[in-house]
Structures are given as structure tokens and as C-alpha cells.
Design a protein that fits this description.
about 500 residues, mainly alpha, 3 domains, iron
């Protein structure tokens, strides 16, 4: 691999780039009669079809963050220089037009229904098209569906497929870092809209879109994006109500400007609200969360914790009753032959993620509970010492552990006499069914009365000596290693300490 020179965080390579997958070398030709071997050369692909991350170093993130500086902070003295005027204009003028129309134009019921319909059409252009089809390649679409989604997405006024997908792939690759263009750790307002109003403080991390550069529908939309935006965002929603029921003005203000405002903030909630509101049933390493309300306002994109764990899955909601109209739309397209190769992550892997989080929750709960002492934390007592101390304390031996039952003598359901007669004796047989086969609660309570271990009476803790509450205890790998080492080196205290703990 040729050496790299770093300039502003972007590698510049001294040697030729490796040809990407899909560009095959020409077949070898027979050597000419002169005897000089002809060495074929690789065809030179267009520069935008070469993967941008083909030669990035393994430590790209750390290197970039340490060697490149972000733009200076925005202050009252420089804020007007740092504005992204194109985005700021669209995101402020559009709602202003909608508000003006709200106070000056009557809303007809036909226009209201069409506005809702057009909202879903353009929103699905983003969720089913930009997001799940092109950014994540979660399924394949027929040419007709691709063109339809490309046009509908242009009506949402969020940039071209190629531009949008590049930023979104960077968001997934560098989630919650400074290379994430809408890093949730910078605040709800920033991740929702702030990152678009000002110039990015730092260039988003490298993300490859060479596959999209080879897609003729994507490049068609990229080339004609401005015209498609005008047609789909304002012309169609004005003309349809105008020709249909004579409401050109209402179509422009409601199906055009107001609908576009709602689509904008619906999509923006995926970057903001979906990283703040809800639960983390699949992973808690990053900020994405699952919540029904977020799904409701984002056309099904609110099960975001699942999505960030399994981004290539065509679903966001995996349960049939969860709200995900984008999944339903893709499924209907599949039924009619417009979509194919729907990707769904293996069910077993999904369950592993869920189980891991459930175990984490159980572990946190277990940390708030007081557990009995193990054999390693108790003094070792000889049989003679046990007998001697039982004369002054109600001590009972069960499963190799010595228990002080003084606090339970008068509480024993079978009566004080059943415990009193076992003082200074081994009551294991009686406890485990000889007299009464005690309940799980009794096992757990008994373990809390441990005060010592009988010498030579407990080489290893038996199954019976482990309280039921601990038999399925959550144990980390490092704890297992500690237990193995303890067993190998027998780290319990040595021979008799003499007296038991009070």
C-alpha cells in the first residue's frame, strides 16, 4: 500500500488507487510474435465510482480527530458569517409561507385530504427511498419504483439521494462522535435542526457512496434535483387541487408549504427525538432509542434502537402491531413485484441483543439486593469449635455452612422446638425433605444467616448449598475467571479461626 500524506484530515495517496470490485482486468492476450509480452492495464473508472474509504487507515477516527481542528465556536460576533444560507432560507421561509397561508387562505376538506396524502408520498420518498433503499440497501426496487421514490423524495426538499445518503452513512458509522454530522451529544436542538442552519464545525467522517454514483436513477435525480424539487414540492401540490376542485391557492399553501414543513420536522425527529425518547431494548452503547410516539411522527422510523443495531433490515418495527407504514409500503411493493430481496436480520441474532439487554437490567437490579456471604468470606470452624460455641449460641449446620438462627427461632413456622433440637447438629437431611422440603424463600432466608464454614465439611459448594435466588445469577466473564482462579488456588481462609462472627 502506498504511503499516505495527511492534509486537513483527508488522505492523499502517492500511488495509484486499487481498482474497486466490479472493475475486472482485461483477459491476457497471447504474446506477439516479436516475443515481447504485452501487459494489460486496468480500465480507469470514473473518480466518483472509486470507494472513498478504500484506503483509510485503521485508526482513521482517532487520527482525524487529533490532527484536524473544527471551525471556531459560533459567537455573537461571527454567527452571521457561519450560517448555511441555503438551508436556513428553506427552513425559515417555508414555515413562514405556511403560517401566512393559514391566516389568509380557507382550507377545503379536499385540499386537507390531499395534503395528508402528499405528506405520506413525499415522506415515503425519504423513509422507503433515501433511507432504507439507497442509504442502507435494505431491499431492491424495480426501475419504476426507484424513479417514483426518487421523485417523491425530491418533494421533501432534503437534498439529493447521493448527498443525503452520504451524510446518513457517516451518521451510522460515527454515531455519537464528532464525525457524526448530527451528533446527538451536542443537544436536541443541534441534532434536530441546528446542524443544518450553520456551517458544519467539522467535516463528516468519510463514508462511501460509490455504489450510488453507479446508479443511473440516483445520478438522474442528482442532476435534475432542483427541477424535481420545484415540481414535486410546489407545482404538483398546487396544480392537483387547482385542476381537481379549483383550489390552486390552498394547494400551494397547505399541500405545498405546510406539508413540506411537516415533512421536514418529521424527518428531523429521526435525528433528534429518536436519540432521546424511549427505551434501548437491543443495545445501550449509543443514543438511539425505540418509542411509539417517535414512530408515529416519523412514518415508522421511531424504532431507532433496533435500526441502529440492524441497519440493513428493511423493517424498523419487527412486531406486527408496531407502527411502521414504511415497512408496510415496502411489503406491499414486494407483493406486487416492485420490490425484491427484502433483507431481514436473523431472528436468533435479534433475540441475542434483546436477551443481552434484559440480562443487563437484571444485573442492575441484583446489585441493589443484599446477597449471602460465600464460603470465601466466612471463617472456617472445626467441628469441636462448632460444638463448643453452640452451647451459647443457636448454631445449626446445613450443607457445610454454620448458621446462627437466633433471630428466627420464634419465627419458624414449624415452631421453635424444631430448630432448638437441631442446635449443634447437622440439620441438612431434615431441611432438605427429611422433616420438610423447604421452599425457595426458606433457602434464600437461611443463606442470610451464615456465619461460618465447617472445616472439611465444604470442599466445594454443592448445588444444595446455593440459594435458589443465586442459581441463575448474572455473572460476567471476568467474574467467572476470578471464580476459576479461586477454585484452583483454594483462596478460602485456612484452618479454624476459633470464634464465629456475631
Amino acid at each position: 500500500m502506498p504511503p499516505a500524506r495527511w492534509s486537513a484530515g483527508k488522505p492523499e495517496w502517492d500511488g495509484p488507487l486499487t481498482a474497486p470490485t466490479g472493475y475486472l482486468a482485461q483477459p491476457p492476450r497471447a504474446p506477439p510474435s516479436s516475443g515481447v509480452l504485452h501487459i494489460p492495464t486496468l480500465p480507469t473508472p470514473p473518480i466518483d465510482t472509486i470507494p472513498s474509504d478504500i484506503n483509510i487507515p485503521d485508526n482513521y477516527v482517532a487520527h482525524t480527530l487529533s490532527t484536524t481542528k473544527p471551525l471556531p465556536p459560533i459567537t455573537w460576533n461571527n454567527w452571521w458569517k457561519e450560517l448555511n444560507y441555503i438551508s436556513t432560507t428553506i427552513l425559515t421561509v417555508t414555515p413562514a409561507i405556511a403560517i401566512y397561508g393559514l391566516f389568509t387562505t380557507k382550507l377545503h376538506w379536499q385540499t386537507a385530504l390531499f395534503s395528508v396524502f402528499w405528506y405520506f408520498v413525499t415522506a415515503l420518498g425519504i423513509t422507503a427511498g433515501y433511507h432504507r433503499l439507497w442509504a442502507h440497501r435494505a431491499y431492491n426496487a424495480s426501475p419504476a419504483l426507484e424513479y417514483a421514490l426518487a421523485a417523491a423524495g425530491a418533494g421533501a426538499a432534503q437534498g439529493s439521494i447521493r448527498w443525503w445518503s452520504r451524510g446518513h452513512r457517516a451518521h451510522h458509522r460515527y454515531t455519537d462522535t464528532d464525525l457524526d454530522p448530527y451528533n446527538a451529544h451536542k443537544g436536541l436542538l443541534w441534532s434536530h435542526i441546528g446542524w443544518m442552519l450553520v456551517k458544519p464545525r467539522r467535516k463528516p467522517g468519510v463514508a462511501d457512496v460509490s455504489d450510488l454514483s453507479r446508479n443511473k436513477v440516483v445520478m438522474w435525480q442528482h442532476k435534475w434535483y432542483l427541477y424535481l424539487f420545484i415540481i414535486m414540492a410546489f407545482l404538483v401540490p398546487s396544480v392537483v387541487p387547482g385542476l381537481g376542485w379549483g383550489d390552486y391557492r390552498g394547494g400551494f399553501f397547505y399541500a405545498g408549504a405546510m406539508r413540506l414543513t411537516f415533512v421536514h420536522h418529521s424527518t428531523f425527529c429521526v435525528n433528534s427525538l429518536a436519540h432521546y425518547l424511549g427505551a434501548t431494548p437491543f443495545d445501550d452503547k449509543h443514543t438511539p432509542r425505540d418509542h411509539f410516539f417517535t414512530a408515529l411522527v416519523t412514518v415508522g422510523e421511531g424504532y431507532h434502537n433496533f435500526h441502529h443495531q440492524f441497519p440493513m433490515d428493511y423493517r424498523n418495527a419487527i412486531k406486527w402491531y408496531q407502527y411502521d407504514p414504511t415497512k408496510w409500503f415496502i411489503t406491499v411493493c414486494y407483493f406486487f413485484g416492485l420490490a425484491s430481496h427484502l433483507k431481514a436480520f436473523p431472528e436468533g441474532e435479534i433475540k441475542k441483543g434483546q436477551l443481552t439487554m434484559e440480562l443487563k437490567k437484571l444485573e442492575r437490579k441484583s446489585q441493589s439486593v443484599v446477597w449471602p456471604k460465600s464460603s470465601n468470606d466466612l471463617p472456617v470452624i472445626t467441628w469441636e469449635s462448632f460444638q463448643e460455641q453452640s452451647l451459647t449460641r443457636p448454631l445449626i449446620l446445613i450443607s457445610g455452612f454454620i448458621h446462627d438462627v437466633s433471630s428466627f427461632l420464634d419465627e419458624h413456622p414449624g415452631g421453635r422446638h424444631l430448630l432448638a433440637k437441631m442446635i449443634g447438629k447437622d440439620a441438612s437431611t431434615a431441611f432438605f425433605g427429611g422433616v420438610y422440603d423447604h421452599s425457595n424463600a426458606a433457602h434464600n432466608l437461611l443463606a442470610m444467616m451464615r456465619v461460618g464454614v465447617l472445616q472439611h465439611g465444604l470442599e466445594l459448594e454443592s448445588e444444595r448449598a446455593i440459594p435458589p435466588s443465586q442459581r441463575l445469577q448474572i455473572v460476567r466473564a471476568v467474574q467467572i475467571a476470578d471464580l476459576v482462579r479461586a477454585a484452583e488456588h483454594d483462596e478460602r481462609p485456612g484452618p479454624a479461626d476459633g470464634r464465629l462472627e456475631d
